[in-house]
């Protein structure tokens, strides 16, 4: 399975203290192969791998995570993005009933899903009505009625032998019925064929136009892989799909459909079906699916904890320093820069830092390259220089410039920026009621 492959790949880099570009390239190559073997659509694989490579190469040197953990973190975040990011909730109509129409090929799991969804909604306090608008197969109506009974919800179907064979009329009538009987949700099950055909598309469109659904959910058999994703596109264009449901995720699905469908169709995955029983069903959470695919929920928890603990520790250390009357040093400055970069695009940062208005100009002038240069310069200083920048005279500036491959004027600029930041930190300490640093001469 895909998760076994991926765990194996991460296992092979787990012990490394540092990752070279070659390590990153070979890891990316292996992940690519694993995805292709899992039947993930090629454009999805391409996007995914290039994002991983880009992010791993430009990766900040994290003090909280080892290289293997950093790669897992990046892969996890990109998997979540490919699966849709946020959990997408059902859209409910402002004016009940909410109408949910199910579409998909025969055997995809629509009727089963209708029962599962109805039971789940009932558990959530709703009163759903299940509508049998699949009149194609002789026992489809009966199958839906049995499911409705097991789910403990009402069903709407043509009377047996009534001669009503028009699914559009059944669907239309069901809405009136729901209003009359006070059902706040209507789930319309429709007919599928073994392949896409124009007659079926037309029928689906007619039902759609008759019931004006709030959601058209395309049910996709996760075991079918790439074919299913193409069908999803056809339904999206032919009927208008608002969301996707993955069924049969319990089968030995290679993961291809699950990973491709969101990216290829641009439609979110709302639910996942994982067995034949009515309970085998849940809201689809991209983050949980990702950790399932990675097969390393524990590792991901560890990563989160390591990062949280590290950030907390850094904050505490700094407050403690201020409390002890110690000064803001070049080491702190470097930590701050790296923390800034870790927080993502600089522009967003400002929104996240209320009261940091006066730093705006300074922050705007920081880009990744500059942070790299700053890092190099500060690393070329001796520990004593980092603690007390007033030591850094002309000849030391030249030595540092040579050591970090920059010009003396760049070293001067950095020191000037540092002094600005130091001044600000001292003011902040003062504002917090903390005695300001022992103002070194710098
Ligand atoms: P429809 O033709 O789209 O309405 O598909 P059905 O709901 O009739 O399902 C076709 C078959 O797949 C039935 O035998 C179901 O029991 C089975 N099935 C549906 N969903 C799942 C699932 O999530 N897991 C498994 N293992 N079987 C499923
Ligand atoms: Mg069916």
Automatic annotation (TrEMBL):
Where, subcellularly, is it found?
Answer: Cytoplasm
**Catalytic activity annotation:** GTP + H2O = GDP + phosphate + H(+)
Question: Signal peptide position in this chain?
Answer: none
Set out the biological process GO terms recorded for this chain's protein: SRP-dependent cotranslational protein targeting to membrane
Q: Recorded E.C. number(s)? A: 3.6.5.4
User: SRP54-type proteins GTP-binding domain spans which residues?
Assistant: 268-281
Major enzyme class: hydrolase
Task: Output a single Gene Ontology CC term carried by this record.
Answer: signal recognition particle
Which NCBIfam families did the record assign? ffh (TIGR00959)
The record's note on quaternary structure and interaction partners says:
Part of the signal recognition particle protein translocation system, which is composed of SRP and FtsY.
**What the protein does?**
Involved in targeting and insertion of nascent membrane proteins into the cytoplasmic membrane. Binds to the hydrophobic signal sequence of the ribosome-nascent chain (RNC) as it emerges from the ribosomes. The SRP-RNC complex is then targeted to the cytoplasmic membrane where it interacts with the SRP receptor FtsY.
Name of the protein described by the UniProt record: Signal recognition particle protein
State the encoding gene: ffh
């Amino acid at each position: 399975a895909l998760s076994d492959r991926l765990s194996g790949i991460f296992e092979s880099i787990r012990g490394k203290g540092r990752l070279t570009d070659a390590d990153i390239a070979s890891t990316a190559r292996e992940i690519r192969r694993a995805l292709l073997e899992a039947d993930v659509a090629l454009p999805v694989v391409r996007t995914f791998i290039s994002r991983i490579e880009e992010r791993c190469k430009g990766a900040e040197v994290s003090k909280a995570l080892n290289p293997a953990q950093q790669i897992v973190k990046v892969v996890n975040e990109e998997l979540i993005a490919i699966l849709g990011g946020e959990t997408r909730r059902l859209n409910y109509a402002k004016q009940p009933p909410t109408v949910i129409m199910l579409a998909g090929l025969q055997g995809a799991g629509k009727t089963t899903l209708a029962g599962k969804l109805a039971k789940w909604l009932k558990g959530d306090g709703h009163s759903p009505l299940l509508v049998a608008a699949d009149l194609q197969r002789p026992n489809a109506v009966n199958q839906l009625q049995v499911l409705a009974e097991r789910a403990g919800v009402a069903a709407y179907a043509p009377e047996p032998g009534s001669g009503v064979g028009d699914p559009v009329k059944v669907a239309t009538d069901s809405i009136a019925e729901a209003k009359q009987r006070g059902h706040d949700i209507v789930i319309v099950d429709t007919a599928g064929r073994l392949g896409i055909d124009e007659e079926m598309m037309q029928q689906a469109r007619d039902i759609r136009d008759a019931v004006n659904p709030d959601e058209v959910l395309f049910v996709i058999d996760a075991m079918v892989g790439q074919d299913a994703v193409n069908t999803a596109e056809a339904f999206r264009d032919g009927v208008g799909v608002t969301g996707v449901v993955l069924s049969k995720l319990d089968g030995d699905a290679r993961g291809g459909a699950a990973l491709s469908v969101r990216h290829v169709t641009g439609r979110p995955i709302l639910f996942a079906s994982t067995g034949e029983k009515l309970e085998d069903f849940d809201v689809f959470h991209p983050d949980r699916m990702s950790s399932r695919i990675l097969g390393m929920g524990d590792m991901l928890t560890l990563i989160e904890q390591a990062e949280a603990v590290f950030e907390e520790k850094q904050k505490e250390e700094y407050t403690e320093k201020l409390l002890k009357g110690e000064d803001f040093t070049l080491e702190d400055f470097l930590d701050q820069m790296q923390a800034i970069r870790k927080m993502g695009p600089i522009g967003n940062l400002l929104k996240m830092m209320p009261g940091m208005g006066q730093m705006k100009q300074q922050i705007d002038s920081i880009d990744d390259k500059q942070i790299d240069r700053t890092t190099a310069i500060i690393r070329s200083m001796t520990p004593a220089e980092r603690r007390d920048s007033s030591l850094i005279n002309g000849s030391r500036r030249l030595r540092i410039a040579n050591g970090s491959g920059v010009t003396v004027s760049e070293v001067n600029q950095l020191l000037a920026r540092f002094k600005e930041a130091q001044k600000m930190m001292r003011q902040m300490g003062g504002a917090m009621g903390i005695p300001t640093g022992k103002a070194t001469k710098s």
